[in-house]
Structure formats: C-alpha cells, structure tokens
Amino acid sequence: MQVALQHCPRHLFSQYLTNNDTRDTWIWCSTSSGIFSTKSVRLLLQTETTQNWKALWSPYIPLKWSIHLWRMVQNLIPVDVTIQAKGVSLCSMCSCCLNHEEESLQHLFFYSDIANKVWTDLSVFLQFNNNGITNISRSVYSFLTRPEITTSAGRLQRCIFMAVIWEIWCSRNRARFQGKGMSAQHIINRSWLSVQAIWISANFQRIPQIWSEALRQPSKDEVNRDTMAPKVAKWFTPPKGRLKLNVDGAFKMTTNEAGGGGILRDHKGNMSCAFAKPYYHLKSSLAAEAFALRDGLLMCCNKGVTEVQVETDSLNLLQIVTG
Ligand SMILES: [Zn+2]
Questions:
Q1: Phi-psi category of 197—alpha, beta or left, where left has phi over 0 and alpha has psi -120 to 50?
Q2: Which residue numbers delimit the Reverse transcriptase zinc-binding domain (predicted)?
C-alpha cells in the first residue's frame, strides 16, 4: 500500500482504505464478502444464453430432469441417429413403435406412437403440441418460458413436461437393454407419481381444480403398486458455524469395482473441500460406504475441522456407526 500511495493521490484510495496499518490481502470482487467461492465462478461463466435457460433449473425440480433436458436441447442424448452422426455406423430400429422406424430425438420423444399417446393424453394439462416440433431446443425453450409458467399451474406444467421427457428416456432404455416393452400408460403413471411427490413436498398453493383432481387420484397408486413411488429428497445447509460432510460409496458386483467420494460444505452451501477415489479388494457396497465415511472424516481431521455434520445415504452404515 505504501508503494501505491507513492504513485497515486490518497483521495483515490480513501474509499477503499479503512486502516493504513492493516496488511494487504487479495479481494475477490465477484462476491460481496470479497472471499473466493466456486459458486461465484459459475455465475461469472454463465453467458446470456444460459441465463435464458434458467427455466430448466429450479429448487423443486429434480436435478436429473434438468440435466437430462439440458442434454436434450444440446443434442447430447445418445439416440441412434445422434450416434450415427458421430461417425459410428449402426443400424437404427426404434423401441417405441410396432413398425420400427429410425430412432431420432424427434421421433423418440415427440413423434413416435408412444410419445404421441403420452402427449395427447396430457394435452389437456400441458397445451403442448408435440406434432408441431421441428427445432427441439426452440420448442422446449418456448414452452418453458411461457409467461404463465410462473403460476402454480405453470410450475406443475413444467414438472410434468420434464417428468415425461425423463420417463420416455428411462422406458426406452428398459426396452433397449432389458427387453421390457415401452408403455405409454406406464410413462404417464410414473410421471404423475413424481409430480405428485413434488406437489406435496413443495406445497404449491392455489392450483386449478383440474390439477388438484388429477394429483389426488388414488388410482395412480393402484396402477403402480409394483413400482416404487418416487420421493423428494432435499439437501439442507448446516447451521451457521458448522460444516456438513456428505459421503457416498459405490460397489459394482459384476466387476468388483468400488469407489467413494465426499464433499464438505458450509452454511451457504459453498464447497470447502472434496475428494473422490477408487477402492480395491472390497466385497460390498457397505464396505465402500464405510471407506468413504472414513476418508471423509480423515479429510476433515486434516483440515482441522472438528465441528461437522455427516450425511450418508446408507441406513445400514448409519445404524452401525451410531449404534
Ligand atoms: Zn418408434
């Protein structure tokens, strides 16, 4: 600072200086606190066009739906035609129609027999014309940014729309890799169940009768007794002054591969540190979960963090540790 004062009039500095005796420190201008955070970098890197896409992301929308739809508008969903376009020669035969057609993005999600039945069945709720789609990203964007999308009914429209896109893809993969036939009714039921879970958890107020009736229909549960109803899981920040450690481990029995990871975050959700690593010679997912917990706690110890909340999705491990 003394050097700066030699070359620059003091009045130019006065608004920045509080005490001439304090040591100079770096200030990260992109946060109000001046402290660096990875979150602020993400905000900096967002361009105008991605701002337009904020319709894809919302606290009440499952991340997997947002990411899936984002991949769709970027043409990154690996349907046959997209893979062919990357130079891989393969013969395409869709899983969605009796008279098999070439599997393109438009076909699978909007034009096929299955997709058409799903969109037609939901048209009274969505007012979405699946047959008029030529440019997917433009159509999806204009649907998700309709002015009414900010109302309660609009939010539900957005939910069911994204749920359907996700469920069509899941159904296609079950057909393709597990030999289970695609069913429009199953896609519709699964979508409604997910939206039901979100509606209850997010507590949307003042929704039109047509929606509340559809969401309350008990038949949705009856039809799906064999499939697990989705639940909404949320991540909550720890109280101020504490950090939260989330750990997870995974194990693949067919190849004996295992790995684990963890992330430490503060009360604003900012990341303090994280790790991810492979594990060898394990025999169960519980072991992978336990190793991830051990390494997460070690990471905290190495950082000198003693006050920490720990979260794991393994009930088994939780009971062993706390018991
Ligand atoms: Zn088809």
A1: alpha
A2: 37-119
Residue percentage of the chain with pLDDT more than 90: 49
Domain boundaries, the chain: 52-223, 243-322
- Tell me what percent of the residues of the chain surpass a pLDDT of 70: 90
Mean pLDDT of 2-26: 70
148 C-alpha to center of ligand 1: Å?
32
Predicted local distance difference test score (pLDDT) of residue 27: 86
Reported as half-sphere exposure (CB side, CA atoms, 13 A), residue 140 has a value of 26
What's the CA-to-centroid distance between 180 and ligand 1, angstroms? Answer: 15
Distance 115 CA to ligand 1 centre (A): 9
- Cα 95 to middle of ligand 1, angstroms: 6
CA of 99 to the centre of ligand 1 (A): 7
CA of 172 to the centre of ligand 1 (A): 10
CATH number for the domain whose boundaries are 243-322: 3.30.420.10
CA of 85 to the centre of ligand 1 (A): 19
For 185-201, what is each residue's pLDDT tens digit?
999 999 999 999 888 88
Ligand 1 center to residue 169 CA distance, Å? 12
Split at pLDDT 50, 70, 90, the class of 298 is: very high
